[in-house]
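FORM 7B: Structural annotation worksheet

SECTION A. Query
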Amino acid sequence: MKILTAKQIAEVDRLSTDIYQIPSLLLMENAGRAVVDEITDASGNVEGLRVVLFCGKGNNGGDGLVAARHLAVRGARPEVVLLSDPTGYRGDALANWQMVHAMGIPVRVMENHAPARKFLRTLEGGPVVVDALFGTGLSKPIGPDLRPVVDWINGARSRATVVSVDIPSGLFADSTVVPGPAVQAHRTVTFTALKLALVVPPASDRAGQVRVAPIGSPPALLENSEYRLDLIDAPLVRRVLPRRARDSHKGDYGHLFVIAGSRGKSGAALMTGHAALRSGAGLVTLLLPASLQREIVGRIPELMSEALPETAERTLATSALDPILSNLERADAVVIGPGLTTQSATRGLVRDVVRRSPVPIVLDADGINAFAAKPEDLRNDLGQAVSITPHPGEIARLLGSRISDVQRNRREVAQAASREYGFITVLKGFQTVVAAPDGRVMINSSGNPGMATGGSGDILAGMAGRFAAGWRRKFHGSDFLALTHHLAAAVYLHGLAGDIAAREKGEESLLATDLLPCLPAAFKSVYAAGQ
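SECTION B. Predicted structure
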């Protein structure tokens, strides 16, 4: 789902009129009706319902005026509160003011901001309050003159449902911070596309339940390649992973190889391989230090394994390079890193495999650490796609930066790294970020704090590898944007499985392996939502 800036949404509105001849008045009409639909959904029957609508002097206020008209038509009892003299309305908002006035809908005008508190003391509340004060065009914090209005709305929310129009007033559409006084909504009806402030906290914490309402702008306008920010959601997963054909076979879903494990870290290899299988891989083969294979063979019957030369520390040795490359001739993708350690010989092996792999690479954990402070070396000589799945500490080591800097600027760090070095970045954590080399960024909408536990990243690595293998089978190694979408689908399903597991077990008690039995339910729920 697209996330647009205030400038981009204004461009979509303008092009809807200029190119597709859709009157801006109709867009406003559809916006106001969507607000009424949301009020109806929240309240049930609106007949006789008292609704207080605070309307600003711009187009956001115009949307509120449309909502007042439709509420009156449906038998509700709307009362409009204007922040200034209605003679200040222009364009579409003026047209809707004239309609509201002609219909005789009760209107109160707060002509001067100075006595706002006195005015508001005379205002009777209702079970629904609509915030149509300021929209996406707000460019400075709400000042002391209008703060009493925001305070009144927020004070009413304990006894009324507060519905914000497009964005809670006081937020900046393109910012994740709360710059000053802002409405705390129960519900927000936004139009055409999401805005960043509705997605990322702390700003998004003010929005409550968010619904994106189409208001008539053709979907083709949202496909502009310059609109580079998206929310990862269930519809994306369904586009990436349609239901299986009846005549399909295991070869259609890819053979994933996993280079993983060392002494004491067999679990990382097992979780990665198991997650790939549970995510739909046709075949999965673990490439392991020889002594480790004896520990895990048969633990998961569907997993295949190959024993490779190892060091005295029971990590993979440099002499494992040729057998690895030979095995990868049968692969569709390879995951490198879970539980490998950073032993010097193993680190050198990882660097050689990444450079010479004949198939797409998903690099995780110690695979990423093998390139610490050398991101320019993280490339494949054969042009194969390289994707990394770091947590904040791993990407900080890779880029030679600080974890605190990464956490303050997660989207920007992932985007810059992918642009500069040409790999796809899956930056794990709250609202996992997926960044492509062309500058596109996706923010995940699933997951919970209970997933902050050892092994959760191994599960994601296996899932990412399975989706990378599926991408290669489908696109034959071309179309890197499609690979970004495939990895984003893995991220969403990983988080969704975590959400399902958390509902069953609670966040505190969640283990990484709890996600595995919940993956089938995650896949099923995504498909069911599209029916």
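SECTION C. Observations
DSSP finds 18 helices and 17 strands in the chain. The chain has a mean pLDDT of 95.

SECTION D. Sign-off
Analyst initials: ____
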